[in-house]
Amino acid sequence: MPRIEDYAAIGNCESLALVCNNGSIDWLGLPRFDSAACFSALLGTNNHGRWLVAPIADAVRVTRCYRGDTMILETAFETETGAVCVVDFMTRRDGVSDVVRIVRGLRGRVAMHTELVVRFEFGSIVPWVSRRDDGRHEILAGPDRLLLDTGITLRGQDLKTVGEFEVSANHEIGFTLTWSPSYRLAPDPLRRSDALANVEAFWKNWSARHKADGEWSRAVRRSLLTLKALSHRETGGIVAAGTTSLPEKIGGKRNWDYRFCWLRDATFTLYALLEAGYIEEAKEWRRWLLRAVAGSPDDVQIMYGVAGERRLVEYEVAWLPGYENSAPVRVGNAAAGQVQLDVYGEVLDALYVARKAGLAPNAASWALECALVEQLETIWDKPDDGIWEVRGGRKHFTHSKVMAWVAFDRIVRSVEEFGLEGPVERWRSIRDTIHKQVCDKGFDPAQNSFVQSYDSKALDASLLLIAMVGFLPAYDRRIRGTLAAIEHGLLRDGFVLRYQTNAGADGLPPGEGVFLACSFWLADNYILQERYDEARELFERLLSLRNDVGLLAEEYDPSSKRQLGNFPQAFSHLALINTARNLANTGGPVHQRSARSRATAKGV
């Protein structure tokens, strides 16, 4: 089974495919990120759906890269008889998605083969396949239709579509797989050369807007491209990852569907986009955010669908064995129904950041913010499920209370700095009450550290955010003590665990990798404490965990030295972008976010 890092992503800002370095597309859902997959070999076997284009003989060398600053993947296969390059990309038309694969001969002659196994609905439905009058193969089941367009001869074999062909130097063979609804007229064939030129121009023009800053600008730009590939062109929503159920522990049960949009990511996303110069994308994200949380404030969820859908019903896909037998495979996410107080702080902070950045005011925004804070007034002192969406019962999580404080702090500052109207004295009083409670109940003097939840002894990487959001200054003795405790209790090979999973806090079997975003947060804390050499060293080590095309999953296993969790992961790339900015600029996101409230926190 390929490792997670053996995959690269291609996308069209509506959906995303994973292409293995062996030439097989093993994951693809159409037409949206969260659609049922037609290629599910990633979570099962080849018979659950995949599309292979590769040399028949074993390659003696395989290299790959993205074509410049684009999401066009180029994989070079060298064999005993020659070399070819497979160019993979996705594009879109009105109501239509296209996956294009172009095989180009580089030298000699290479015998190639293709195997297309389409299994709609996560590998469960074998479609009808027929040949149309225009020569294309039609692959049909229920509402889904795929059209395969190629110049080579194909045949059916064991419920697969297969073919062999040979490519010589300067020779080119193309394939286009087009999705459209089965009940509409079939779309016209795609002109591959025009599509390639248009897709390349789109990505290069988008990348050119990046305000490069610092020695890590290439790594930052690749992360920004990944975020763009995970964003929906029409709704503005950014999914947390392109996959479901890639495990946090091989063989374990910590397998979740991340093809949705988390409010937790809101402020990090805005900083990443704004600092890089992507103002329009930041506006689109804010518009998505406002639409998603519209309605009754007591119905705010922690995550939403790509277009702001609320019903993300979770179920298990029993016929898929899971990546390396890591079952169950889950579709949907029951955590959407959890109560997480931190989302109020994330939303209020994000909208405050947008206001500070000068994004045009939104008429509905302030009324929504006031309604959210009014709701938070009634629930901030209640237990919740916490940032990590634990399934072991609600607690008074320290991070949740800190983010409730952030919500009141940012709305107070919006009144103070922008002349907006509201009961600011009451909000200030609640802010101060929360602050005192967290310092009294969320801090353990015996450990000289803040703890995961009130009156507990457990540590949690989310405590790294206390200084980053400005709750206390980085030089406060309690922050220094917390950082030392995390260094002692949560580091594995220098990277950060979210928490000790064997402590029974999350209601799941123990074991997971180190969490990459949290490791970037540790570097951010080093920066705030002016431990620049340590921050730089950690950041460089984290960069070394990226795969050969610059992508990161959610987690990493230092023992087996492999990536874990859903892939590519927006949260990891957001953290990379912001930490790079923090290292390159004393006015980076962590300085901005922490400095805003430093005056109110100092001496408390």
Note down, in words, how this protein is organized.
- The chain has about 600 residues and is of the alpha+beta class.
- It contains 16 helices and 26 strands.
- The chain has a 15-stranded antiparallel beta sheet that branches. A 3-stranded antiparallel beta sheet has the order 24-25-26. Strands 16-17 form a two-stranded antiparallel ribbon.
- α8 runs antiparallel to α9 (about 425-440).
- The chain starts with 6 loop residues before the first strand and ends with a helix.
- The mean pLDDT is about 95.
Short summary:
The chain is an alpha+beta fold. It contains 16 helices and 26 strands.
Keywords:
604 residues; globular; alpha+beta; 16 helices; 15-stranded antiparallel sheet
What is the helix tally?
16
Pairing-aware structural class of the strands and helices? alpha+beta
Number of strands: 26
Computed over alpha carbons, the radius of gyration is 25 Å
Strand content: 15-25%
Distance between the termini: 54 Å
The biggest beta sheet is recorded as:
15 strands, antiparallel
Shape: globular
Proportion of residues in helical segments: 25-40%
* Low-confidence blocks of residues: none
Q: Please tell me the overall pLDDT.
A: 95
Fold blueprint:
Layout: E1 7-11, E2 16-20, E3 24-29, E4 37-39, E5 50-55, E6 61-66, E7 73-78, E8 82-93, E9 96-117, H1 120-123, E10 128-131, E11 137-141, E12 144-150, E13 155-157, E14 160-168, E15 172-181, H2 192-207, H3 217-229, E16 261-262, H4 266-276, H5 279-293, E17 303-304, E18 315-316, E19 330-331, H6 342-356, H7 363-379, H8 398-418, H9 424-441, E20 443-444, E21 449-450, H10 465-468, H11 477-489, E22 491-492, E23 495-496, E24 514-515, H12 516-528, H13 532-543, E25 555-557, E26 562-564, H14 570-584, H15 589-595, H16 598-601
